[in-house]
Amino acid sequence: MKAFQMQCKIEMIRVLRNRYFVFWSLFMPIIFYYVFTNLVNSDVPNQAEWQAHYLMSMTVFSVMGSSMMTLGIRMVQERSQGWSTFIRTTPLSDSVYFAAQMIGQSVIHVLSITIIFIAGAIINDVSLSALEWVLSGLWILFGSLPFLAVGTMIGLMKKVETAAGISNVVYMVLAVTGGLWMPLEVMPKVMQNIAQWLPSYHFGNGAWEIVRGEMPDWKNMLILIAYLVLFMLLSKYIRRKQEAV
Amino acid sequence: MNEILTVQNVTKSFQHKLAVHNVSFSITKGQITAILGPNGAGKTTTISMILGLLKPTSGEIRLFNRLPHEKQVREKLGTMLQEVSVMGGLKVREILALIRSYYHEPLPMGELISLTGLTEQDLKTRAEKLSGGQKRRLSFALALAGNPELIIFDEPTVGMDITARKQFWQTVRKLADQGKTIIFSTHYLQEADEAADRILLFKDGAIVADGTPEQIKASINKQSVSFIVDPETSLEKLYQHSKIDRIYRKNNRVYAETASTDRVLEFIFQEKIGARDIQIERGKLEEAFEQLTSEAKEAI
User: Fold this and answer.
1) What chain B residue is nearest to A19 in terms of C-alpha separation?
2) Domain enclosing residue A8, as ranges
């Protein structure tokens, strides 16, 4: 238990000291949010709804990124530098190590969500009911799970450069096609159809529904769970294949 | 039960390459044992198997009478591996606190710091900013964090300067005096000689010699008697002599390699073969060892 708490604490310290995390997961989403809701003139009928909608988009964008990249790249680093091997010679069990990374990462997500929500409230006076704030926060925490699984998959790569490159591309493609940068309605029909099958769209959509006063669709939840299972199985399969060599 | 570690008929092969072949030995409490051998002799593979990082292809390894990957074993084990960079983003003190939290009865922080010579300044430094020497000290501290009974070092002094090396071995000796069992690998004969109570000499994945440093040195060190002799003289009797291992000619001299130069001299005079300008040569230990090393390299 002591080891678990310590490991969680350490994982959080490391994330917060990581400049890439602070830049990509906190600074950039807030800047984007400011730019797209204030500087870029968007003719939306309901300004307040658009501002709340886009705040969710950017929070989802932030959490999705740190799930995949911060976690994945860190795992590659630890393995390529021999640290994981050293850890295997200590009494720390694999499951405690894994759980601590997930919990540590999730606490960090709570922090990112809080900071970006506060930024939204300050920048655009976004006002939601307390329940909406909490529900959308929880939804984003839950929706990060399949992306954490992607993170563990990226974590299986051999080189930090490859992991960083690939995760960046996957991240950006998912963000754009899922409608996190601009609403799907302004995209071509084909893109809209594709988005219906992407985890990033359903991740975002759950939060958008909440700020519109609705509840996330069952479909949002089911598709995210399906992706979680798929990515976990894939991650396990790849790991087993690597160990066999 | 004084046997801390037993390795029994252990073989490890990677695809088609045989890295370790039928190795057996056991180690008792409080001993400092060196695994000595050239690169590629199977030292690291053997250590990895003892640590439970690799599975033997056949044979069995037991530590504290348990299998290497068991948690009870890990509680009593400390290690310093080759080429480990400590994870970044953390200060030395934080890393030590983290690793200590993994063990039931860790070594007190103060003791850990004084044993390894980390300074107050080092403790505040982030791991990625440490110099090579500081990193080794941190690795050493990590190995001792759990107050282990068995400590395994893989090539511990690579990259250390002379002072650091000396300090390191002094501390290791102190730990052994406290009853800790220590195993380390090295490819320097001198280091094994100075630091270890026992040497396991590895070559091509097998143990070729096992004993105290004196015994090992005697087994690899060759002495010879050399002399000048009339080319027509028959050396037949020398060839038949049981104490002579090898005879060869070099620069007009005849060399007879032997473990007992006294007996060979006696023989030469008895037989009156007309030897002149007799010299006894004690081979250089390091040279003999290097020869062993280079042979191994060619074999790869």
Assistant:
1) B89
2) 2-244
Please tell me if residue B84 touches chain A, with a CB cutoff of 8 Å. Answer: yes
The nearest alpha carbon in chain A to B97 belongs to A6
CB proximity A46 to B under 8 Å: no
ipTM: 0.85
| Chain A partners within 8 Å of B87 (Cβ) | 14, 77-78, 81, 83
pLDDT (tens place) for every residue of chain A, 245 residues total:
788 999 999 999 999 998 888 998 999 999 999 998 888 766 777 888 899 999 999 999 999 999 999 889 989 988 888 888 899 999 998 889 999 999 999 999 999 999 999 999 999 999 899 999 999 999 999 999 999 999 999 999 989 999 999 999 999 999 999 999 988 888 899 999 999 999 999 999 999 999 999 999 999 999 999 999 999 999 999 988 887 65
Domains of chain B: 222-282 (3.30.70)
Q: How many domains does chain A have?
A: 1
Given a contact cutoff of 8 angstroms between Cβ atoms, the answer to whether A30 and A116 are in contact is yes
The larger pLDDT score, comparing residue B196 to residue B261, is at: B196
From the list A18, A81, A93, which residue is nearest B84 (CB)?
Answer: A81
The DSSP code sequence of chain A is -HHHHHHHHHHHHHHHT-HHHIIIIIIHHHHHHHIIIIIS----S-HHHHHHHHHHHHHHHHHHHIIIIIHHHHHHHHHHTTHHHHHHTSS--HHHHHHHHHHHHHHHHHHHHHHHHHHHHHHH-----HHHHHHHHHHHHHHTHHHHHHHHHHTT-S-HHHHHHHHHHHHHHHHHHTTSSS-GGGS-HHHHHHHTT-HHHHHHHHHHHHHTT----HHHHHHHHHHHHHHHHHHHHHHHHHHH-
Q: Using a CB–CB cutoff of 8 Å, tell me whether A14 touches chain B.
A: yes
